[in-house]
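STRUCTURE:
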């Protein structure tokens, strides 16, 4: 089996999720190597103590160049992470002699070996995954885009390097958490890639990229110990908006209505895996304090419930999608 190279980035606040993602790749038997850009010293030191055998760590100071350092001066923490996204796979392709690299978000969790994704990409250069919004989420496409950055594969060829250089330049110029002139963060820049660049493949396999914005439209089941949606094996789920609170308490997806089957077959295994990761981190650093969200007040929680209820009613055809 071919070994696939992945890269991701996260700080101390996302370390639990990043570790859980790494362990899920191990669990499904993937042959992989994960390059992790640690966005702060705390996350680097903890990861170093964990001694992940299929991972290489990169310190932010060893990665940043003049363009990134300049951009960091007027970006928030989240905006700077977005700004870095195209630079990380570009850096690895140019400096590590890799034939391909796949960028993955830290809050993914793999239920099956991702090999079918690469088989579908075949000889093409770049792989993109659509959001595949449900009706209630379709209005978000203006701000979140057609594609999600969550899982993007790049072959080391001229087509890919040209696309990554273009994307990096755009993100250095403008990458903010606001909608402006058809831009928002790093993600809207890739909307037109199937037309802008040759060799781009849009993944057909719906088992990759299951997420809070699309899971409601699928029939979720467990068959022969495999989680399926519409009879297709779930390869990975994107745990967007997932909150971790102290004392191993969790909030699955504030603002989204979640089918009971999704909670049972997707979210419950993830929370169990997160608990193991939290314990694993505590074993190497018993004073670890980060990775927890603050509890929102009751009015905010009620507002999120109302939003989720409206989405449920839209997806059931009871309410028009004009709110």
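SEQUENCE:
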């Amino acid at each position: 089996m071919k070994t696939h190279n992945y890269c991701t980035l996260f700080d101390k606040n996302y370390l639990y999720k990043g570790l859980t993602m790494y362990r899920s790749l191990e669990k499904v038997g993937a042959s992989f190597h994960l390059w992790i850009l640690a966005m702060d010293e705390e996350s680097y030191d903890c990861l170093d103590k964990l001694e992940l055998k299929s991972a290489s760590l990169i310190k932010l100071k060893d990665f940043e160049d003049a363009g990134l350092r300049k951009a960091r001066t007027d970006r928030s923490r989240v905006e700077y992470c977005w700004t870095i996204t195209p630079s990380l796979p570009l850096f690895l392709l140019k400096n590590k002699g890799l034939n391909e690299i796949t960028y993955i978000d830290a809050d993914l969790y793999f239920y099956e070996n991702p090999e079918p994704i690469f088989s579908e990409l075949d000889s093409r250069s770049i792989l993109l995954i659509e959001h595949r919004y449900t009706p209630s989420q379709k209005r978000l496409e203006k701000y979140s885009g057609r594609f999600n950055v969550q899982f993007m594969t790049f072959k080391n060829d001229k087509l890919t390097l040209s696309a990554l250089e273009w994307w990096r330049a755009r993100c250095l110029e403008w990458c903010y958490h606001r909608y402006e002139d058809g831009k928002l963060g790093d993600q809207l820049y890739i909307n037109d890639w199937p037309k802008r660049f040759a060799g781009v493949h849009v993944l057909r396999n719906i088992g990759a990229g299951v997420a809070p914005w699309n899971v409601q439209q699928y029939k979720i089941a467990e068959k022969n110990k495999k989680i399926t949606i519409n009879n297709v094996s779930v390869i990975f789920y994107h745990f967007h908006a997932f909150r971790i609170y102290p004392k191993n308490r969790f909030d699955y997806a504030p603002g989204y209505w979640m089918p009971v089957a999704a909670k049972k077959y997707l979210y419950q295994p993830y929370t169990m895996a997160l608990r193991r990761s939290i314990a694993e981190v505590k074993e190497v650093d018993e004073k670890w304090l980060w990775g927890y969200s603050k509890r929102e007040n009751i009015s905010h929680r009620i507002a999120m419930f109302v939003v989720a209820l409206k989405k449920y009613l839209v997806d059931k055809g009871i309410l028009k999608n004009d709110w």
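REMARK: Residues 260-284 form the longest helix (25 residues).
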